[in-house]
Amino acid sequence: MQLEVDLAGQRVVVVGAEQASRRVLARYRAAGADVERVGGAAALQRGALAGARLVVLVEGAHGGGCTPRAADVPSVAAGSGPAGPDRTDVAGDLRNRCRHDGVLVVREEAAAVGPGHVTLIGGGPGALGLLTLDAAAALREADVVLYDRLAPTEDLAVLAPAAELIDVGKLPGHHRVPQSGINDLLVRHAREGRHVVRLKGGDPFVFGRGSEELAACLEARVPCRVVPGVSSAISVPAAAGIPVTHRGVSHLFTVVSGHAPLSEEEHLHLAGLGGTIVVLMGVSTLPQLVAGLGRAGMRPDMPVAVVERGYSASQRTTAGTLATIVTAAGAARCQSPAVLVIGEVVRVGLELQGGAAYLARLTESLAS
């Protein structure tokens, strides 16, 4: 049975040790409740529960039973005397008192008590459904979340109900928090005994500087786990119906960062390699890229697509050829975030969706 209670402005008493109760406290405070934590015998003192709408019993961090462990809610002697051989269970007494006073009582798991640690999470291209189960579980247990703008952030307060949320996202040409600052935040919060989640878009090890953050944690001797994510290099073309490989068309694909213009040698290698080229962060350098590939020998009628905001309600695909895509993208006012796809697989994707006629017209106009 699931009950929903509006706790805004209501008094909630949390019974448990401070560290073990930290996530429970954060969650109820975020719900607008007037939260007080008490531990052990203090919960049974006269007036401790006065005016409480809800009492939360925090279970031991390592216990699986229905009563809190002694470390979290110690047992006390029956009556009002000190603890002794004839001890009774605080949780049982509290439940009886709450039942008598008409106060709701619930039981919640304790947060782990011990050294802090970091989890680096790839959030995928931004769609909540593409967040992995391991990523969602880590967010539920997070004390702090450092997140980027391309991560799935719309429901972050629900995904990480007990966490402090810190926006460290980067905009093109503007870094709210420099990378060194992000590294310092990860280490500092973890050293304070917290579970720190670094939530990034795509996969943390695909142009995501995840390896730099992992190195910073390892250097500081902070335990760190990596949860991979669905890379936008594959998922965003798929959202537009464009496969990065297709039998008889392309048996390989190359992922390139378009953050900065490529060298002539890199253009030459890309053009000569064949297959599919997927470019991340390449909208601003699109003119240099297509010009360089053209100089390297790529044919002018090579299909090209710009897929903007993959998996969002405003997703859009602009198609063209190597010779026309700059004009087409400019006319459509393409903006980041976007993924560029260069290769015959673009034609395959358009044919699957009935859009091949558009590309054919572009190719004919180029030839005339």
User: How do the SSEs run, as a string of H and E?
Assistant: EHEEEEHEEHEHEEEHEHEHEHEHEEHEHH
In round numbers, the mean pLDDT is 85
Tell me the strand order in the biggest sheet: 9-8-12-7-13
Unreliable stretches: 61-87
The description of the largest β-sheet is: 5 strands, parallel
- Whole-angstrom Rg: 28 Å
Counting helices, strands and paired strands, the structural category is: alpha/beta
The helix tally amounts to 12
Form type = elongated
Could you estimate the helical fraction of the residues in percent? Answer: 25-40%
Q: Distance between termini?
A: 70 Å
Beta strand %: 15-25%
Sequence-ordered SSE layout with sheet pairings:
Blueprint: E1 11-15, H1 22-30, E2 34-38, E3 52-58, E4 76-77, E5 87-88, H2 90-101, E6 104-108, E7 117-122, H3 133-140, E8 144-147, H4 156-159, E9 164-167, E10 170-171, E11 174-175, H5 179-191, E12 195-200, H6 210-219, E13 224-227, H7 232-239, E14 253-257, H8 264-273, E15 276-280, H9 286-295, E16 303-308, E17 316-321, H10 325-332, E18 338-342, H11 345-352, H12 356-367
Helix pairs in contact: 5-6, 8-9
